[in-house]
Amino acid sequence: MRVAVTGAAGRLGRALVTALGDAPFTGPAGPIAWVRDELDLDAPSSIGRLLDRDRPEVVVHAAAWTDVDGCARDPELAIRRNTVATGEVAIACATRGLDLLFISTNEVFDGLRTDGRPYPPEAPTSPSNAYGVSKAKGEEVARAAYVHRRGTVGVVRTAWLYGAPGNDFPTKIVAAAERARAEGQPLRVVADEWGQPTYAADVAEAIVELLADDAIGGTQHLVDGGIASRADWARELFRQLGTDVDIEEVPAATWERASTPPAWGVLEPTVLPSGEPMRPWQAALADYVPLLRRQRAAATR
User: Structural domains in the chain?
Assistant: First the structure.
């Protein structure tokens, strides 16, 4: 199976390229990795040329503008990159009878639930920020492209994604802790945002399982197991790092931001073809901590 990945240099994209490289069904050539130089979301019309040149059977559209605050400041650009570009990719794939898997987000939900229940895949979307709006519309245009056309379209939503190349929550919170310690202050961390810290490598492996089982259709929620607040995530990270950090839990309103993330961003996980759930987020974090240590060591040299 020839699988192409857009946004192959991004967090999930690079994890997908690695996971697909180890999958026997991609053959000796491995996956097709399209980076921004080949498919720029500001000029997505190149997708037809790429499809005809590389002839994939499935496209995993992981490329996106994920700067949520940037999306809030320029919602029209967010729509162009996350909705219009997705529509062009979807139409190009559908007209050629190719399968498409679109990567989306928990931010398609407003996060206002107060019953403690996760959002199931079939729940109506209700985004409350520009990033969520652009991704929810991206889901819509991807599905619409396949009406009355050959091929399968699927949507994967994930949440609180972290992993290489860094610049993620663990990297930022470690840096923030160092600054707070230098100033003799506690580290203030948000306690009223809830979600599922999810390792990009785990999502990539789950997508490989879906592809191998020809099960990409519909809407899938791929998140690591368990629920945490941002403060819970930070506390567990420092425990695994063996670092004593004085954490002060604060509300999200402590900081003024351009975008408002969902307070309850918890997704109901999809059962994978194997029947096995994705592992607990704490176990996944333990795999990332050694890499984070190496990154921090390299940064201080």
Answer: 3-161+195-221 (3.40.50.720), 164-194+227-265+280-299 (3.90.25.10)
